[in-house]
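Worked Example 4.2. Consider the chain below.
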Amino acid sequence: SSAEAKGVKPQSVLTKPVTSSTLLEAIGEALDKGFVTETRAHEKDDSMADTMASLKGTRILLVEDNDMNQELAMELLSQAGIEVVVANHGQEALDILAQDSRFDGVLMDCQMPVMDGYTATRAIRKNPALAALPIIAMTANAMAGDKEKVIEAGMCDHIAKPLNVGEMFNTIAKWIRPDSPAANEAAPTSETPAATVDVGQIDELLAHLHALLADNDSTASDALDELTELARGTPLAAKLKQVTNAVANYDFDIALEALEKP
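Applying the procedure from the previous section yields the following structure tokens:
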């Protein structure tokens, strides 16, 4: 390098843009404080272990047509103690869910033969019992408009391929929890008919919640709790489950998109 040609031997070289983590590592190396990097590595390992532990016992439907991707995803998910059921395309996923809806979430490839992930997700969302089931897109496309397309189809988030293990588990843990499987969300019953609900009050709260989410106002969670209680046993309850998951992670934009979906 030009620096070495001038007799300067840098301890380390930073490439731009510089991030806080790479800067910290470079400083630690320059000061012979290698433990800084080592500590960060251990913290990262511990964080990953905690994330994987939080997913133990969940049951996920993996919808993927590529054999190698199936094998890789199943291996990674199984290591976290996740039970995995595989569907080879969207239609097969619909057939499985028609017989067995006891899933905590779905990992949905977007480009598949027979039926793609977007079409399958829209079909799933038409079933009130599955309207709140977390569906996470998996696609090799990393275009700027992908997130909007994913949300429009009814999916709650996006995992890019090739899979980054850390990002994959963080995204899954963000939406899927073993203690509250969305697939078991109650559909409207004769005991709690929608006709008994105060529609005017619900509409008023919906407008209020919409405004709070648009302003990224954390008090949206209070309005959401009140609205969820009023909407219990109605089709709206399933949609509010998605909104609740997003608000819990401070993803107000995603929560707003989920609320605005038909």
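Residues 35-54 form the longest helix (20 residues). The radius of gyration is 22 Å. Compare this with Example 4.1 before moving on.
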